[in-house]
Design a protein that fits this description.
heterodimer, A: mainly beta, seven-stranded mixed sheet, four-stranded antiparallel sheet, 0% helix, B: mainly beta, five-stranded antiparallel sheet, 11 strands, globular
Chain lengths: 112, 113
């Protein structure tokens, strides 16, 4: 499982509140990713990181920010949650001999 | 930006049948990923391939780079194979996957006993 954990695993929050999701890895991988998964859209990239303090936008980055102050932690922040951000969020890392992507267990976020 | 199409979207089959799931993409790639997601479960990487064929147990993945097409086959299918199968390619050719993946919408497979 490449030592990836996500917290929290489930969260219900109200519209307009800030939310931070955490991805933690134990194997010192350089590349980390945040994806969201929605019915009818599949998985889509939100942001990714290619090192400490090095991040870039993906295809659905509006309304999200990220930070990576340590190799092992990649944080995803919704500054002011909206109902359209109700989704399942997956963190992933790029590693292994073939540079496969390994996914965390996911965080189910509901914005009411 | 790469576009990925999978077919079929849904597939129901009887135990023991040979299953084929198809994936087409629009831009040349360095490698293609096949992933599996069980209901309510996490996402597991099955294969990453850049040419030819790979086999793991009853699963076989093939890719034709010239035709921009890949297939995932399951031989002697079993109810435990019931899952969503997702094809993914690098988001950009130059990124090679380092800048993330673009995913198909998935094939929902049900194997009935």
């Amino acid at each position: 499982d490449a030592g990836i954990t996500q917290s929290p695993r489930h969260k219900v929050t109200e519209t307009g509140t800030p939310v931070t999701l955490r991805c933690h890895q134990t194997e010192n991988h350089r590349y980390m990713y945040w994806y969201r998964q929605d019915p009818g859209h599949g998985l889509r990239l939100i942001h990714y990181s290619y090192g400490v303090k090095d991040t870039d936008k993906g295809e659905v980055s509006d309304g999200y920010s990220v930070s990576r102050s340590k190799t092992e932690d990649f944080l995803l922040t919704l500054e002011s949650a909206t109902s359209s951000q109700t989704s399942v969020y997956f963190c992933a890392i790029r590693g292994g001999l073939d540079y496969e992507q390994y996914f965390g267990p996911g965080t189910r976020l509901t914005v009411t | 930006k790469n576009e990925v199409e999978q077919s079929p979207q849904n597939l129901t089959a009887q135990e023991g049948e040979f299953i084929t799931i198809n994936c087409s993409y629009s831009v040349g790639i360095s490698a293609l990923h096949w992933l599996q997601q069980h209901p309510g479960g996490g996402i597991v990487s099955l294969f990453m391939l850049s040419s030819g064929k790979k086999k793991h147990g009853r699963l076989i993945a093939t890719i034709n780079i010239q035709e921009k097409h890949s297939s995932l086959h399951i031989t002697a299918s079993h109810p435990r194979d019931s899952a969503v199968y997702i094809c993914a390619v690098p988001r950009t050719y130059s990124g090679g996957g380092a800048d993330g993946l673009t995913f198909g919408k998935g094939t929902h497979l049900i194997i009935q006993p």
